[in-house]
Amino acid sequence: MSSDLGYQATILAVDDSVVMQELIKRVLAVDYRVLVSDSAVDALSVLGREKVALLLLDVSMPGIDGLEFCRTVRKLPQFEALPIIMLTARDRAFDKVQGRLAGASEYLTKPFDATQLRQLIQKFVGAQAPGSSS
After folding, report:
1. DSSP secondary structure letter of residue 63
2. Does residue 45 contact residue 14 with C-beta atoms inside 8 Å?
3. For residue 73, with 0-12 CB atoms within 10 Å meaning exposed, 13-18 middle and 19 or more buried, which class applies?
4. Quick one: 19 exposed, middle or buried, by C-beta within 10 A (0-12, 13-18, 19+)?
C-alpha cells in the first residue's frame, strides 16, 4: 500500500521477545520499514539516529519498562508528537489507563490482530509522505 514512490515510513518495535519482533516484522514489512529493538536503551539510540514515524512499545521489559520509556520519550521535545502504540499482554483497564497516562497514543493487547494493528498504524502514518513535517 505504500505508493509514495517507494517511500516506506519507519516503524520501531521495542520488545524483548525475539518471537514477537519477528511476528511484527512479518506483519508490517510489506508496507513499512520495520526496525526492532530489545531494550529501551537500544531504542533510544535508534530514535536518535533514525527518522521513526511510529513506535510500537511493549510494557513488560527488563530494565526500563515500556511505561517508563514512553514517559521518557514524551519528555523529549522532538518526540512529543511521535505516535506510540503500546503493544502488550497486559489487558486490564488499569494497565490501559497507565499506558495513556504515560503518553501512549493507543493501546493494543497481545495476542494482537494483524489487521487491527495495520489499521492503527495507518491511522497515524498513512498520510505521511517523504519530507512531511509532523
Report:
1. S
2. no
3. buried
4. exposed
Query: Which residue is listed with cell 526500563?
Result: 64
Which pLDDT tens digits describe the chain residue by residue (134 residues)?
444 456 789 999 999 999 999 999 999 999 999 999 999 999 999 999 999 999 999 988 888 888 999 999 999 999 989 999 998 877 777 777 777 878 899 888 888 889 999 999 999 987 443 333 43
Residue with grid cell 539510540, as numbered in its chain: 45
Distance CA 57, CA 60 (A): 9
What φ, ψ does residue 33 adopt, rounded to 5°? -85, 120
Cell triple for 31 = 508496507
